[in-house]
Amino acid sequence: MFNLIKLAAIAAFITALFIVAANAQSTTGTVSMSATVSKFVEINSGGAVTLSGNSGGGVTTDGTLNNPLAVVVNLGELGPSNVNSFVTASVPLKIRSNAAYVLSMSATVTSTGSTANKITSADVGFGLGTVSRTGVGVNTAGVDTNATSGDPTLVANGSVNAGSGRYVYSAGLTNLGAFSSSTTALNGAFIMNAVPRSNANGLTVPAIFAVKPQFYENGTTTVVATFTVTAP
Amino acid sequence: MRKITFTIPLLFCLLFIGGLGNAFAQALDISSGGAPTITGSLGGSVTGSSSVLNDLVVTINFGEISPKNTNSIVKVVVPVAVRSNQQYKVQATVTGSTNANAQALQRTDIGFGVNNFRAMGSNSRVCTNSSHIFSSPFSNDPASNVSINAAGRATYPSTLNNAVSATTILSGPRLSNGNNTRQTDDGYIFDAIFAITPQFYAAGVTSATLTLTISAGPAAPC
Questions:
Q1: pLDDT digit string (tens) for A160-199?
Q2: Closest Cα of chain A to B129: distance in Å?
Q3: I want to staple A43 with a disulfide (CB 3.0 to 4.6 A). Which of A48, A133, A229, B184 is the partner?
Q4: How open is the CA angle B182-B78-B110, to the nearest 5 degrees?
Q5: How far is A28 from chain B (nearest CA, A)?
Q6: Residue B158 neighbours by CB under 8 Å, 6+ apart
């Protein structure tokens, strides 16, 4: 009788524990969340290319707003038969970022000529024009630093060399000779406030290329400029 | 003497087992309502039990929410099971997710809503004198109700910022039949939905914890 009672007690106790475990209840639950925001930058076309002062030539592949930048421009005749003072191509860029950015450029210039009178990288003027931060969602208070001298056709950015008679651009980041390796052209504060990617606004700036028609050695010249934006 | 020695624990255990019934008669329980899901993420994940018998412990990694994620929204659905044999309320309280930089992810950038209230099974209590009510403004799917404010930022009808202090998101009459031990068919399930629109947020990592608590609720006769 005693053993029966003892066994019953043990069984009851174990059963009680089992019931407690099986029916564990809780009045609270938790949902823990985390998210990551990485630095993000992008460069796209800021719109159509403007070509002026050209004789022949034209825009072969135009820029399309907010699409990847891949324009092709034929500057046309750059010899003295072109009586314009400059052939200028203005290529709008659009940059967007959620962090401070750096816009760099590198360029190569190759000519078929064989003498010092062929077109060289120093004969292709370059500069970034007015930087614009406008539109909803843009950090309009952000400050940008243009490392170039702006429009290369400005009087201050070039002149005829007194000794050689050749038109040359001023010292500094005024021509593609200064961009034989990747060189910072523009940098600044974050561009976009917290808005979705579908917001199409951003920072726009024209990249201006110019060649002054001169008695260059005849031939053809190819210029390739590569823009890269980073968030260091 | 020995007989008395073992009889007393026996009686105690029997009384304890009997007492469980009374204890559970006042039971309020919250648990997993099933496997959580995530869509639209880039490198994100969500973990949680698929069993309604397990506690609600969910971990969400929304992943990348900068414009690198080209999806329009990252959405997470967390099924939550609730049981009670009395009127109840479910409250939500958020901690964390504060950033001094206004351009960084804020609580207001994390949409939070609830919907899809449904019975678990045959022992879900059906009450005809009161309704289960999602509290305003939480009764929505934030992923389907995104709007853009004047500043260009994505907004939602309700966000984690609406649950900075304990805030009732759901209340109603008794939820369960039976003795209210946690079963697979003795309560109701609703979906807690979280949503983030990838945007040009300031870079960084943000975390937050939402605690859901069930307790005795306002009068809601069954």
A1: 999 999 999 999 999 999 999 999 999 999 999 999 999 9
A2: 25
A3: A229
A4: 140
A5: 4
A6: B111, B112, B113, B137, B138, B140, B142
